[in-house]
Amino acid sequence: MAIPLSSYLVLACRQLAPFSATARTDVEVLAMHVTRLDRAGLVAHGNDELDAGQVLQLDALVRRRAAGEPVAYLTGHREFWSMDLQVTPDTLIPRPETELLVELALARIPPAADWSIADLGTGTGAVALAIARERPGCRVVATDVSAAALAVARENARILGVRQVAFREGNWLEALEAGQFSLIVSNPPYVRDSDPHLDCTDLRFEPHLALHAGRDGLDAIREIAGGAQECLRPGGWLLLEHGYDQSEAVSEILAGSGYSDCLSGRDLAGHFRVSGGRRPAA
User: Fold this and answer.
1) Cβ atoms of 27 and 67 closer than 8 Å
2) How many domains does the chain have?
3) Are 125 and 222 within one domain?
4) Is the confidence at residue 92, as pLDDT, over 70?
5) Is the pLDDT of residue 55 over 70?
6) Between the CA of residue 124 and those of 27, 202, 268, what are the distances in Å?
7) pLDDT value at position 1?
8) Average pLDDT over every residue of 48-69
């Protein structure tokens, strides 16, 4: 049965509203995915009728979204740092707050630098690719324990034409050489194993390894902070994303591991979401 696009959007939004606080946006993104229109096009073509195939496809996507499946997995895409990234259930979905990690990294990399930089647990490659595009003179090594995630990251690099990123399979620091890096960044798992959101939100669809981090959510951060100095050059930086309520604990871990000039940065919501420190120069 054919139905005008604008009418379908209204009906689908009503259907999804009990299950998603962002129902209108979700439906529009799904409609753009199926119709290949942009947001302005949804308005301009609001009176155009969807064909039966489009209605069936959208109905299926809306039902999956109502069951909690993230929109990024339904469309296979997510924007990050003005890049259109491919996303699969093998990767964590890039989130806006992670752009703070890129911002703080770029603030420490001179525009003409030729540094070696590492991104640990790269997932889609979002952070590594953003830094590489902004600092084309730098060499970036992106690691992940998941071969499937690395395949997604490599494809994103190919599509974006970013050639100075090398992808290596390995757990955190094991794929890195000692003393070679001027900057190491990571968005590691930092969710407590007991966090109720793991069982009742979109998080239940994302990779377990990319989320769970022990009883207090700090296991991965402890491991990275404890070993990163061996891979950093003297004076090199380590920057870590973490939970909104973990900055004090992460700063204590960094200071206890011997880092100097420790800092924490706030995201757009005012939460401290990235902390870091330097390997002492001497």
Assistant:
1) no
2) 2
3) yes
4) yes
5) yes
6) 24, 18, 23
7) 61
8) 94
Q: Is residue 162 part of a domain?
A: yes
Q: Give me the pLDDT at residue 191, please.
A: 83
DSSP string, 263-281: EEEE-TTS-EEEEEEE---
Domain identity same for 26 and 118: no
In a domain, 79, yes or no: no
Q: List C-alpha distances in Å: 119 to 28, 235, 267.
A: 33, 18, 20
CB of 212 within 8 A of CB of 234? Answer: no
**Angle at Cα 77 formed by Cα 72 and Cα 78, nearest 5°?**
75
E-state strands within 145-187: 165-169, 181-186
Question: In angstroms, rounded to a whole number, what is the distance separating the alpha carbons of residues 17 and 231?
Answer: 48
Q: What is the DSSP letter of 186?
A: E
Q: Whole domain around residue 232: which residue ranges?
A: 88-278
pLDDT digits (tens, 9 = 90+) for 125-150: 999 999 999 999 999 999 999 999 99
Task: Please give the single-letter amino acid code of residue 75.
Answer: T
Q: Is the pLDDT of residue 259 over 70?
A: yes
- Its pTM stands at 0.92
User: Residue with structure tokens 């129902």?
Assistant: 23
Is 188:120 a contact under the CB 8 Å cutoff? yes
What secondary structure letter does DSSP report for 109?
Answer: S
Nearest alpha carbon to residue 218 among 239, 189, 184: 189
Report in angstroms the alpha-carbon separations of 120 from 56, 125, 142, 262.
40, 10, 6, 19
SS3 168: strand
